[in-house]
Design goal:
mainly alpha, single chain, flat, 91 residues
Amino acid sequence: MIAYLGLQYAYLFNAASFLAVIFALLVIGPITQEKALVIKGAKASLESIREGIHFVTNQPIILSSMILDFIATFFSSATTLLLSWPGTSCM
């Protein structure tokens, strides 16, 4: 597009697409939301943790993606934890 029409038309197209998104958001309008019951204190924290664990274990896609992310992060960070010996290269 830049090579054919020039840089100014690329910016014009970008602005038009941005305005289209803003218009779409205005057409959608506000979405009503429900208020959640708020429980305070240590009991609330433990209850929230239990509820979160229950949710994750009952959603196989979320559980598998969290396990995959953990494994990838665990094994990729091993190279940053290795100390190089004097006179040798770590990478």
